[in-house]
Structure of Glycoside hydrolase family 1 protein:
Amino acid sequence: MYITKPNKEFPSDFLWGSASAAYQVEGAWDEDGKGRSVWDEFVRIPGKTFKATTGDKAVDHYHRMEEDVRLMKEMGLKTYRFSIAWTRIFPDGNGEVNEEGVAFYNRLIDELINNDITPMITVYHWDLPQALENEYGGWESRHIVDDFVHYAKTLFERFGDRVKHWIVLNEQNVFTAHGWLMATHPPGKVNDRKTFYQVNHHAFMAHAKSVIALKSLWSDAMVGSSFAFGPSYAKSDKPEDAMAKMDYDDLQSYYWMDVYGYGRYPRAALAQLRSEGVAPVFEEGDEEILKEAAQLVDFMGVNYYQTCVAEYNPIDGVGMTNTMNTTGKKGTSTVQGVPGLYKNPQNEHLPTTDWDWTIDPEGLRFACRDITSRYDLPIVISENGLGAFDKLEEGKVHDPYRIDYLKRHLIELKKAIDEGCRVLAYCTWSFTDLLSWLNGYQKRYGFVYVDREEDENEGTLNRIPKDSYYWYKYTIETNGAELDV
């Protein structure tokens, strides 16, 4: 149902895109001067990833970049969002620039521009240099802010003449929660809430100072960070469930977006954390820097996959665990929550993926409306996609389930635009198949099938466009005008 009269097409300058991350696609993990990241080390810990998969080779984008960009051009892609591997630029996190790493990204940027594809760079997509982790504990130390900003400024100086779309941090809420609460990402700590919130404050300061640095160098650049936004629905009309939703939103959504959009933490969330003794410690001047950066941010980046349900969680209720569905066997995930505040049971009204992720296209519209109402910022959908068990059959991949998923999400996104949301870009996750951090190579997201198995030495790595590739190509050609046909 629309609340406004719909337009047929998306805006004429809409950026139809797709996305990736360096560790998940590049491979060449120790070539051309690249240093080790925390993920290069973490995947070598037994039991941390599905079937001990690594990104050592990934899908070999490092050596097949031109082929991948050619496929993007043939699809008609308007923008490609990719991340820079910090350890290709600074192998040890700081010090001398590795010029071979810079040269690779220069080639990629120029190749995209020469093929009429707008480059969109993610400064940080989780691959912290291991050297900084060893030196001072990485994100746990305030030292990380200066090293991060130095790294970011180097990217701005080297690439900012051609790159005008920047995402500073990818899913800060995810890499910190998995790293310091669930132990499923580096550095693998369990329920260390005090450190979790301090780490996030350091990340916020890195974001803010990087935004300020970019704008001082390139005033015409557009910048924001990408948040993994899962809007919530109250379980029932009980007041305690409504309050559980408010607590969830403040502690799991607005805690990040308010800093990006307003330059401050939600008051109720900060009061809760102070009462528990886990609130972050500020340095003098931090509040002013966060507020200054918020005035300079151009958009809210959104990685949208699913919504959740918020229900009151008694004081002796469920907590956070590291029990996740990484196998693709439905029903193997567990309910998570914060005792005394909220828990997130499965939504019985919505279907799920094989990995128990709720499929809720209307939630994307909900997310855009919420951001527009609360922050009045333009939006970049920096990720949205379906992970599935794709099969290569007689040289083809038929994925009608992915087409249906993306189509229904785009229909809802179009409604949000018609209702006043300013959506600048839509980047699917992902362009090619890639390494899913904890789920290996069996969970496929791409428009382009990559022939590779879990074993590092199996598969040709050949690229094979799926049915969804051709569907998205036509959707771009028609600017979304025939989505609901």
